[in-house]
Amino acid sequence: MSLRLEGVSVERGGVRVVVDVTLDVAAGASLAVLGPSGAGKSSLLLAAAGLVPSAAGRVLVAGRDVAGVPPERRGVGLMFQEFALFPHLDVAANVGFGPRMHGVARDERAALAERLLSRVGLAGLGARDVGTLSGGQRQRVALARALATDPAVLLLDEPLGALDRQLREELLDELRQLLGTGGPAVVAVTHDRDEAFTFGERVAVLREGGLAQLDTPARLWTAPADAWVAGFLGHPNVLDVAGAAALGVGGQRGPVLVPVEALRVDPAGTLAGRVLDTAWRSGHVRVRVDVDGTVLELDVAPDRAPAVGDRVPLLLDPGRVRAL
Amino acid sequence: MTTGRAWRWGLAAVPLAFAAVFYAWPVVAILGRGFAPEGVLDLTPVLDVLGSPRLRGVAWFTLWQALVSTALTFVVAAPITWLLSRYQFRGRSLAEAAVAVPFVLPTTVVATAFLVLLGPGGPLGLDLVGSVWAILLAHVFFNVAVVVRVVGGLLAQLDGHLVHAARVLGAGPWTAFRRVTLPLLQPALWSAAAIVFLFTFTSLGVVLILGGTRIATLELEVLRLTRDLLDLSGAAALAVLQLVGVVVALVVSARLQERLAVQQSLVVGGASRRALVGRGPRSLAVGCLLLGGVLWGLPLSALVRRALVDGDGGWTLAWFRGLAGRARGGPLAVAPLEAVATTVRVGVVATLLALLVGGIAAWLVASSRGRAGLGLDALLMLPLGTSAATLGFGFLIALDTPPLDLRSSPALVPIAHALVATPFVVRTLVPVLRSVQSSLRQAARVLGARPWQVVAHVDLPLVLRPLGVAAAFAFAVSAGEFGATIFIARADVTTVPVAIVRLLGQPGLASSATAAALAVVLLVLVGTVVALGERLRGDEQATL
After folding, report:
1. Which residues of A touch B458 (CB under 8 A)?
2. In what side-by-side order are the strands of the sheet with A185-190?
3. Which residues of B touch A68 (CB under 8 A)?
4. What is the mean pLDDT of residues B117-145?
5. ipTM topping 0.90
6. Do residues B211 and B220 lie in contact, with contact meaning Cβ atoms separated by under 8 Å?
7. Of A126, A117, A116, A129, whose CA–CA distance to A88 is shortest?
8. Which residue ranges of chain A lie beneath pLDDT 70?
9. What is the pLDDT of residue B542?
């Protein structure tokens, strides 16, 4: 039960919004597709589901080329961004819609819906009107509905995008546990890098329709493919050649990445700079320091935060610095 | 993909053929009669029409009474629109429904009511029949509902934060209204003005009944030339003149709407409604109540009274009982109650036809993004902008020769009614079908539904209620249709509006009271059907 895209391109309105993307996800594995809005993420999903035609390339579901196979026979599940629950059906009928289309008998559908609803923590809510559900409940119904046809591949379009932050973190954990091992190949599209890194065993970064990098979260973070990926992932210290030379971290040809974790305030440090400003994040303080005209950012523990204007010594771990 | 496209074209053939045979062909026939009566281009009849001082007077009167009617309608509608879309009070939704009702009442019923109220011997002791005032008042009676619906619909959904932003930035309430609310409302204002202008420009039943012998509009003149003077070329020339007026109005309004339309996010219940507290809002409410009572309550109660009072001023049910019998020497070939049966029969057939043609068209319009959908939409809107007399007259001269000799066919009247009702069906269904998010259809596909199953399990259940609303509306349109019917109905297809006009053409208390009784029956019939439809609309808003 796997998904493989080979050189897939998608055109919408005469514009190539997905360009030559190749990726594959094994059964039970999870892949997050990360990119800014307009990078072609949703189009990629719709093409995999057969809802929009691909202009080039092949889509293989469980090893089978599904060219020309209509969406209803691809064995693909899709969870929509705003969930797209049928407003005229109750919760159980929404979950049972797929099995119904596949000719499953009424009693069996009801039992299946009940089982799936209890699996997503909504036991007993089958008769509810979908309009009365909270955002989190709607998300769970949508997930139960997508799983009801036992798809080989499950595609999630911004699965948590419509929810507030705290709910997102809770549901993300649940989602990971639910989908677990042995299930379908899961592809989730998101613009949120935390969501992508938490969710995907591997993360595909999409830029302007093309695949910029595909790797595990750890390797993406420590070894981004280029300055754009590094910046998009949230690395603040991507230095140009002159800036890198000023700090003595080499890199004659291209930019250099200094991850925030490569820097710390330390009396033994060989660099020194003046604190420009500090900003609270959850769990740490982000400090911006001017080192001889080069601005660097680093994180310090909240109780160690320097004041603006202080001169601080900095220790740089050259092993973590990376030429891009 | 290709089979899907073939399907769509096959489906499109139904509304296209309907519009071509029953709209385009008759209109072409009128143009032919007007410009080339002998088969070659001959502008004499048109020039005769344009040169005749009497007909020039008719054209001028038609134009200015429509403009004044439109202006008066806005004056009356403004406070009511503001009250209903800005304030929350008990009975508001009831008031909203009550305001909508006059629009669907048959013109002949309303005109009869004003005839009773303002005619000689009426309860007010006035005699305004034969003056423009009676006509203007009747026009306002119908069209306030248009303004309230179209403008109020937008007003209630304007993003309330916009006005708040203007207020915080230093605008007073009046300035905020003038600089923010009014500009955002402009598309709705022009669209409502265009609709009201068209209805009053092509008004027939009202002018025929209330205009006396002196007043005529283009629409009425077409009828007179055709039926009384048998001057088909002159009638065709006049119809062409009227068609030009209608097209100009439609184009100007479309241009204005296009230029003034802004991308704005509408919020259901966007401007939070305020409670009716304080002296200003309360006097507004009382004023609207009085206005509504005078405008709608007086004529309708005068109508009911006339149907229930005998020659000596005592109460009686004799006029209603008399509907079952056939008056000897009366203007009707059948008992008045027969006309009610005919109206119901014609109405049911016309409704089914309009639902079939309009339903298919609405689905095609809503599901196609390109020009084709817009074109079909516009094509099916045309009959709405075309005067009833033009339609009826076109049927008369186009459908009387083989291969389409339908003049003796009983289907002709329902077909004409369906043509007029179809735009309403399309208009009701298209927004609903469009609002069915494409992700719902996609979700169904991914879950295993084939394309036809998507229609059956997603589209159809979601439009079932609006379909009921559209059916009620189509029936009301058919039951009240007069202009086209009077041209094409044979003596044995007498609908209630035709019967009313024939009765009013006879002098004497008996025929006027019988007409009033018949009008009350039609009023109750249409009112009941529309009320049922409105119930469906209300429930639908609660669940969706």
Report:
1. 86
2. A76-79, A153-157, A185-190, A30-34, A202-207, A210-215
3. none
4. 87
5. no
6. yes
7. A129
8. 162, 180-182, 250-252
9. 35
Helix axes B371-385, B336-367, angle to 10 degrees: 160
At B143 the pLDDT is 93
Query: How far, in Å, CA of B377 to CA of B372, rounded?
Result: 9
Residues of chain B found within 8 Å of residue A70, distances taken between Cβ atoms: 445, 450
The interaxial angle of helices B298-308 and B509-543, nearest 10 deg, is 130
Q: What is the pLDDT of residue B216?
A: 86
Task: Identify which of B472, B496, B347 has the alpha carbon closest to the alpha carbon of residue B417.
Answer: B347
- In a mutagenesis test of the B interface, which of A88, A102, A143, A156 is the best target, namely the one with the most B β-carbons within 10 Å? A88
Is B264:B183 a contact under the CB 8 Å cutoff?
no
Tell me, yes or no, if A132 comes closer than 8 A to chain B by beta carbon. no
Q: Tell me: the pLDDT tens digits for B313-345?
A: 788 888 888 887 766 556 676 788 888 999 999
Percentage of the residues of chain B whose pLDDT score is greater than 70: 90
The vertex-A211 CA angle with A208 and A213, nearest 5°, equals 120
Among residues B399, B416, B411, B385, which one has the least CA distance to residue B480? B416
CB-based contact, A199 to chain B, within 8 Å: no
Q: Which residues pair with A149 in a beta bridge?
A: none
CB contact under 8 A, A72 and B445: yes
Q: Is A97 close to B447, i.e. CB distance below 8 A?
A: yes
Is A148 in contact with B447 (Cβ distance < 8 A)? yes
H-state helical runs in B20-159:
25-35, 44-51, 53-86, 92-104, 107-118, 132-155
Sole residue written with tokens 């074209």 = B9
Q: Which residues, other chains included, contact B145 with Cβ-Cβ below 8 Å and sequence gap of 6+?
A: B99, B100, B101, B102, B103
The CA-atom distances, in angstroms, between A74 and each of A56, A182, B197, B290, B449 are 18, 19, 55, 65, 12
Tokens of A115: 């089982």
Distances, alpha carbon A276 to alpha carbons A247, A264, A308, B465, in Å: 18, 16, 6, 63
Q: Which of B352, B351, B541, B362 is nearest to B459 (CA)?
A: B362
Mean pLDDT across the stretch B305-316? 83
Q: Give the containing element (helix H, strand E) for B211.
A: none
Residue with tokens 């403009």: B67
- Lowest average pLDDT, out of A5-9, B31-35, B164-168, goes to B164-168
* B97-113 mean pLDDT: 88
Q: Do B111 and B160 meet the contact criterion of CB atoms below 8 Å apart?
A: no
| Strand-strand pairing, A153-157 and A76-79 | parallel
* B507-519: pLDDT as tens digits: 788 888 889 999 9
Computed over every residue of chain B, the mean pLDDT equals: 83
Give the separation between CA A113 and CA B292, rounded to whole angstroms: 54
